[in-house]
Amino acid sequence: MALAFPTVPKASTRVSRVLETLRLWLGGKPEAVQVAALPWRRDAEGRLLVLLATSRDTGRWVLPKGWPQKGRSLSETAAVEAWEEAGLSGRIGSDPLGSYFYRKLLDNGLRRRVRVQVFPLAVADEAQDWPEKGQRELRWFPPHEAARNVHEPELARILGNARLLEELR
Question: How far is CA 91 from its chain centroid?
Fold first, then answer.
């Protein structure tokens, strides 16, 4: 029987590592890894905006994300997800801004712990047509509003980290 511990939103990195080690030691499955793009742009006044999309299953606000793809780096995969889910293209960062955990509902009804690595995407183009057009709602938010609209506390912390996001160029 696999035991799962909830992600502790304000736990230090050291405590999080200890909890993860304990969870694995008690028989928990290793976390799965996904990648996400954090699409961003600046408006006419130079204010930062980030794009969120609704998930197809629950309608929650999320970043474009998906599973790593063979033959592509994690950042390249994140850029592909932004294109497929939101019709966005631009310059993807090679280093993640951070990561967050969530529990993915699997087809068998169980939930799998997933760590999502978040890569910044400086949006240069918004296509008129893309693979998942019409399947999701897209909206540009100021980062503090985006942070209030996501369900994952660690993702909200990334979106709410003004110092980190203001360094995006």
Answer: 17
- Percentage above 90 pLDDT, the chain: 67
Helix boundaries (H) for 26-142: 74-86
24: three-class secondary structure by DSSP? helix
Lowest mean pLDDT among 6-15, 66-75, 105-114, 152-161: 6-15
- The tokens 């996001």 sit on which residue? 165
Residue with tokens 């949006």: 123
Neighbours of 131 (CB within 10 A): 11
Q: How many residues does the chain have?
A: 169
Q: In the structure encoding, which two tokens stand for residue 117, read together?
A: 């690595």
pTM: 0.81
- pLDDT, one tens digit per residue, over 91-115 is 999 999 999 999 888 788 888 889 9
- Cβ–Cβ < 8 Å for 35, 52: no
User: Which residue shows structure tokens 């709410």?
Assistant: 160
**Residue 35 to residues 85, 93, 109, 129, Cα–Cα distance (Å):** 13, 12, 22, 23
Strands (E), the chain: 32-42, 48-54, 61-62, 65-66, 88-92, 98-105, 111-126, 138-141
